[in-house]
Amino acid sequence: MEESTLAGRVAWVQTQIAEACRAAGRSPGEVTLVAVTKTHPVETILEAVAAGLTDFGENRPEEAVGKIDAIDARQPPGTPVRWHMIGHVQSRKARLVVPHFDLVHSVDSVKLAAKLSRLAQEADRTLDVLLEMNVGGEVSKSGWAAVGWDQSVTVRESLWNDIRSILAMPGLCIHGLMTVAPLVEDPELARPAFVSLRRLRDALRGDFPQADWDHLSMGMSDDYAVAISEGATLVRIGRAIFGPRRVEIG
User: Fold this and answer.
1) pTM over the 0.90 mark
2) Domain chopping of the chain, boundaries
3) What digits encode the pLDDT tens for the residues 101-143?
4) Residue 18 phi, psi dihedral angles, 5° rounding
5) Buried b vs exposed e over 138-166: b needs ≥16 C-beta within 10 Å?
6) Residue 203: which of 159, 236, 167 has the closest Cα?
7) What's the CATH architecture for 6-242?
């Protein structure tokens, strides 16, 4: 890819998503591109909005809030911009998440779910969430320990019990699962993680039909085509659109 403008890179990524969908026998409308704007400034995000993007993902609540407020203030009424929290949320920063984000991809514990539930009730809103699963077993990754969920009775029972508890929490609405696949040189090596997440989602849908399990948030700049072939509905793409991240804030 040699697109020199942000709009050109957006168009290129959208074309690649459409091609991956067609190869998988899916409609491009089934997949939402979430542009990851961590460390990128308001001006760059506004340029992305002008290029037609509507969904943006942030990793850190404290960095995101100022940008969200600035973007919202500069958008014409009715402009459809949706904000996704995709990074680990510390319990003490959960209060920043509830009023600013449309979908939280990274609910990774009963403790965090309970905190978000309480804050959502205080704000008189229902917060849409995904449950983050660590299906690759990497100790550096957040999420429920879900390796071997389909082989270990202990892992499965623990996970099922936690999800049963979250489903009973008011103020939260589960919409599916999220994972961060292992970082590998060959995108095909990430496929087992995507397959595992899809199969886990299908199993949960069968046992907990009261929840909405429609979404699979998986796939990033290097492996989103493989993720789409395995059922991704939300792909989180930063570098392929914005280039390398700027110096970390904080």
Assistant:
1) yes
2) 6-242
3) 999 999 999 999 999 999 999 999 999 999 999 998 888 888 9
4) -60, -40
5) eeebbbbebbebeeeeebbeebeeebeeb
6) 159
7) Alpha-Beta Barrel (3.20)
